Structure formats: C-alpha cells, structure tokens
Amino acid sequence: MRAVILPGDKKVVVADRQRPEPKPHEVLVQTKVSAICRSDMSLYYGNPIVGGEAAETGDVIPGHEAAGVVVAVGDAVTGVAVGDRVAAHLAVGCGHCEYCGAGYTMLCPDWKCFGFDFPGGDAEYFTIAARNALPLPEHFSFKAGAVMTDMIGSQYHVQKKMGVSGNKTVAVIGLGPMGSAAVLVAKCFGARVIAVDILDERLEQARILGADDVVNSRDADAAAAIRELTHGRGVEIAIDCSGNPAGQNTALDAAAKLGCVAFVGESRATEINPSDQILRKLLTVVGGWYFPLGEWPEILRFIADNNVDVEAIISHEYSLEDAEQAFGAFDRRETEKAVFTWS
Question: I need a surface site. Which of 73, 89, 267, 310 has the fewest CB within 10 A?
C-alpha cells in the first residue's frame, strides 16, 4: 500500500508499505479520508508534540483524523463488521484503568496515539482497536467523519464542560482549523462569538461560519477590543486555539470576572501573570483535548440535529501522492483544514 512518512526536517516521503493485518482485537480499515492537523506538523519538523519512541523515529505513518470502511476484523472482534463505516478515535488505552473505564483513553498512563505511536491514517489502509472504531452513519460523509473526531469532538467536549450557551459570549482566539471548529460549535450552542486572528482571510472565514464580530489582533489590542465589544465586561468564555503565548494571554485578559478560559492549542511553554489574570478574577482555566469514547453518539446527534456544516472548515483536498505539496502548503498556512481523499 502507499503511505506517507515524515522523517523530519520538513521532508515528506510517499512510500510502499506492507498492508497491515488486524490483531485479534483490531479492525483493518480502508481509508477514505485522512486530515492534516497542526500537531502533525511536529512530526513534519521532527519534534513530535505527543507520542513516545516510535514517534521520534521519523518512520511512523502520520494521520490521527481518519475515516473509512472496515475490510477485515480480528478473530476476537465483536460489534464491528466488515463493511461498517467508521472514524478512528486516536487514543488507544489499556482498557482496564480508571480513565479507560470512563472512556478517557487519552488519559491512560499507557495510552498510545494513532499516527504518532503506531501507524496512522495517511495510508491506503490502517488498523485500529475495535473499540476505537467509531460508527459513522450513512448520512455523514467520510470527510465529515474525519474532522468530527479531533476538531469538532474536542470543541464539543470542552465547550459543553464550560457551559457554552445562548446567554454567553465566547471569544475564539486563533482561527486555524481548530478555531474554525470552535466557532461552528459555539454558534450551534447558541452563543455570541467574537473571533480573533491576525489574518484577514481567516476572519472572513469566521464570519462565514457564523462569528458575530471579528478582531484583527495584528492591528489592535485584541483584549481591549473584546472589552469594548462587551461594554467593558469581557467575555464569559475565552478559547485559545492558537497555542501562541500572545493568544493565551489575550484569552486570560479578555475573560470577564468569574469567567472561564480554555487552552486548546498545543503549546510547550508560555508566561502568564496568575495573580492579575486568574486569581483576582476568580477565573476557571481548563485544558481542552479530545473527547471520551462514550461521547461520540452525543456528538453525532449534536451535528445532525443542528445541521452543522462540518465540511465548511475544509479548504483543500489532495491525493496521497501530493503529500509533499499538501504538508508544505499547510506549513506555510496557505491552506486551512486539508484532507487526503480516496475514491
């Protein structure tokens, strides 16, 4: 089969790899769509943000947002059959600890990440634990299924936790694919949305997705602009999707007293002023990262009941053979959410 390999240093190889065989508790999936995520770029650069030794070899197949059709199942698999349409949940846990029991496999001490610790979806086929093969009903496209996992799923989970609703104003800082998903989800929850970025084209896209107000933080003090738009109060909820220290500080500064801030964008380090930004405002600060396995049916209903146009966050489609072009364009921010597709 053909597969993408990211050796690091912005190198991309499309190579022949042996088609995997499912282990007893795994399924083999023929890939229909696999998406590029900003965290994949850490493999592209050679400095993986998640994963263990396998991720650091530069030889793992990337892609942790993938959907396709089951073509074979392991001997011990029940509940998943050949022909089923599925999307992959990226976190494979031990299945026995307290976190796996609650569905939070990404918190398992021994968890492994699809596309980092073991081969991902940027290939013609992939294997995944049967319990991580999320059912994808016929009325959802494979493109929707792929981006509904990390992008939509992560935002649904964190926004539900923060109580996003029609009587809240939400600031979304950083309007890459995750930020676009944040706008979509917040609008479906009924909130007023203020979108913040330094790129005018992203701000325009946010308006198309439903943002009520936009702020270009390259031209203005974003926190001050948000306070002006909220009559000096600030927003009840601020979500940083940039992973940038400036964006993270904007989220803390723009949040109203007794408000809530979520850090969703991956980040290795930042500097904040806890006393002024958090303590004196009695803020709640949470991390936003993926969703528990059992929440998938709820996410499907949310998308279907609200007629969410999930595919609206996809800007470009590529064939796998064009992977070098796809990753390069994504790195240069010439694309937003980009996906590999198969017929």
Answer: 267
Whether residue 165 is found in the same domain as residue 67: no
Shared domain check, 283 and 233: yes
For 130, half-sphere exposure in the C-beta direction (CA atoms, 13 angstrom radius) is 19
Q: Which residues contact 39 (CB under 8 A, 6 or more apart)?
A: 49, 50, 64, 266
Say whether both 87 and 164 belong to one domain: no
Instruction: Give the integer Cα–Cα distance in Å for 100 and 204.
Output: 40
CA distance 165 to 233: 18
B/e letters for 191-222, b = 16+ CB within 10 Å, e = fewer, are: bbbbbbbbeeebbebbeebbbbbbbbbeeeeb
Are residues 51 and 115 located together in one domain of the fold? yes
What is the arrangement of strands in the sheet containing 192-197, beginning at the earlier edge strand?
Answer: 213-216, 192-197, 169-173, 235-240, 255-263, 284-287
- Determine contact, residues 258/162, Cβ cutoff 8 Å: no
* pLDDT tens-digit map of 29-64: 999 999 999 999 999 999 999 998 889 999 999 999
Q: What are phi and psi of 127, to 5 degrees?
A: -110, 150
Closest CA to 193 of 216, 210, 176: 210
pLDDT digits (tens, 9 = 90+) for 217-237: 999 999 999 999 999 999 999
Identify the band that residue 343 occupies on the pLDDT scale cut at 50, 70 and 90.
Answer: confident
